[in-house]
UniProtKB/TrEMBL annotation:
Database matches in PROSITE patterns: CENP_V_GFA
Protein name per Swiss-Prot or TrEMBL: CENP-V/GFA domain-containing protein
Keywords, in A-Z order: Lyase, Metal-binding, Zinc
Taxonomic lineage: Eukaryota, Fungi, Dikarya, Ascomycota, Pezizomycotina
Sections of the chain in a coiled coil: none
Domain CENP-V/GFA per the UniProt entry, residue ranges: 84-196
This protein's record includes keyword ATP-binding: no
């Protein structure tokens, strides 16, 4: 907060925080973070939780996520063929990818993605959970469950760097959605081609019109009606999933 003259008592000259603000944290975690001597270690010492989730401990039940994909660390001796590398803005969280191209890449216009990313839409690339290997910041991740609005590790959830708050990925029950703008080399011809989006999702919720010739779905890709690119209106009866189901019934 910005200190003003009226924040000081005329008698004791002690600081009195305004009623509408909260005093600085006095928790042990706050002082441990402020007392770091190693400037490269932007996070915790590893023995206390960050965002109430991550730490270096592995003995508790709530720490078992560290042994499962996508968070499981691959040993150097394992056959993990690195194709791409990515990192957050501050560099505390870094990872590798073993897949040349994502399973799919999409633009999502839902209001949740707009708010969580502070952007008109989210650019997401789908990978298997086993395709990623965290090389740094394994203990420095925070989670957010947008459905319950909670910071517990409950799927599906948003994953972020607990220091600079860069969105790292969306973790689903079976897949992960990574954000190509974190990938090193994404601005090259190879990167743009590898992560090129195939469609738009939740297009009726858009805040900008995009006329790029890509399919624009009203909700989930390949599972909802398409939208007209010129007007943005939903075209009833254009759901690819329902069309496939009808074809199967005919067979």
């Amino acid at each position: 907060m910005v200190l003003r003259p009226h924040h000081f008592s005329a008698v004791s000259k002690r600081i009195i925080p305004p009623a509408f603000t909260r005093p600085l944290s006095t928790s042990p975690r706050f002082f441990k973070m402020a007392d770091h001597k190693n400037e490269n270690n932007k996070r915790s010492r590893g023995d206390e939780p960050h965002q109430y989730q991550a730490s270096s401990r592995t003995d508790r039940e709530e720490d078992q996520w560290k042994f499962r994909a996508p968070y499981k660390i691959h040993d150097k001796g394992e056959n993990f063929d690195v194709k791409w590398k990515g990192k957050c803005h501050c560099g505390a969280v870094q990872y590798e990818l073993s897949r040349e191209k994502p399973l799919a890449s999409k633009y999502c216009h839902c209001t949740t993605c707009q708010r969580m990313h502070g952007a008109p839409f989210q650019w997401a690339a789908i990978f298997h959970k086993e395709d990623i290997n965290f090389t740094n910041g394994h203990h420095d991740l925070g989670w957010y469950d947008p459905t319950a609005k909670s910071t517990t590790h409950h799927l599906p959830c948003k994953v972020q760097c607990a220091y600079c708050r860069t969105p790292i990925m969306d973790e689903g029950r079976n897949m992960i959605l990574l954000f190509p703008t974190l990938i090193e080399g994404i601005n090259t011809k190879k990167g743009r081609e590898a992560f090129a989006a195939q469609c738009h999702m939740f297009y009726p919720q858009r805040v900008v019109d995009i006329k790029d010739g890509l399919p624009k779905f009203s909700r989930l890709a390949d599972e909802s009606d398409l939208c007209d690119e010129e007007t943005g209106e939903v075209m009833e009866g254009t759901n690819p999933k329902k069309d496939k189901e009808k074809e199967k019934k005919k067979e």
